[in-house]
Amino acid sequence: MTTKLQMGRLALRRRQRGLSLVEIAISVAIIAALLIGVMSWVRRIDVDRQLNATRSDAIASMNSAIAAYMTSPSTATATMVVLTGQNVWPSDRISNPGAPGAAVRSHFKGGSEHMFGNTFSNTWMKSGAGFVYYIRGVPAQACAQLATTLAAHPNAIRVTAGDTPANPPGNGNGLVGNVVKEENAPINMATLSAVRACGGSGSKQVGVAFFRS
Asked: DSSP letter string over 23-77?
């Protein structure tokens, strides 16, 4: 009788131990899911913060460039060297302002910004009539909102979006990328959400061409 009782107790302990392991595994899984959710939420908040700062500064930078060349006969002389020297961007984001190798850090981690005068004549902008402005390293989830903000600027004529190319744009290279807003037309939301523009994932580049007056 004693042996049977002991065996019964041992079996009960084993069952209890098994239940405890299952409960622990379930608890760990729940905690892991919560942590993933919290980390995703924190990343979303961080991207939103970077997006809001970029939208505000981008509009200010466009306005600063317009003001700097309002009375100039042409924007062809507007290079990164010249524009960084004129504080078109906040000084804390500029490296080597007004000198060769001048660069502008984006609010998006690892991103950069580039602006120069348009030196190509085409059907929608004559050479020297405006600027081309790129923001590189934009997270895919922020791409559409940023493109929409740039397109809403009163002087914006064209907006492009697409995957961030390996090499940054050079002075006078014109506006490249998938056109999501054409001249005299609203932004095309279907094109904007396509994978070749702001859809999908990864790093994006958003560009805008805008008149100086």
From this structure: HHHHHHHHHHHHHHHHHHHHHHHHHHHHHHHHHHHHHHHHHHHHHHTTT-S-STT
- Residues in Cβ contact with 63 at an 8 Å cutoff, skipping those fewer than 6 apart: none
Homologous superfamily (CATH) for 3-211: TcpA-like pilin (3.30.1690.10)
179 conformational bin, left if phi > 0, alpha if psi -120 to 50, beta if neither: beta
Angle between helix 140-151 and helix 2-68 axes, rounded to 10 deg:
20
Q: How far apart are CA 196 and CA 116, in angstroms?
A: 25
Share of the chain above pLDDT 90, in %: 65
Report how far residue 104's alpha carbon sits from residue 112's, in angstroms, rounded to the nearest whole number: 6
Q: Indicate the domain borders of the chain.
A: 3-211
Mean pLDDT of the chain: 87
Cα separation, 147 vs 163, in Å, equals 13
Mean predicted confidence (pLDDT) in 119-147: 93
Place of tokens 């980390």: 39
| pLDDT tens sequence across 153-212 | 999 999 999 999 988 887 666 788 899 999 989 999 999 999 899 999 999 999 999 999
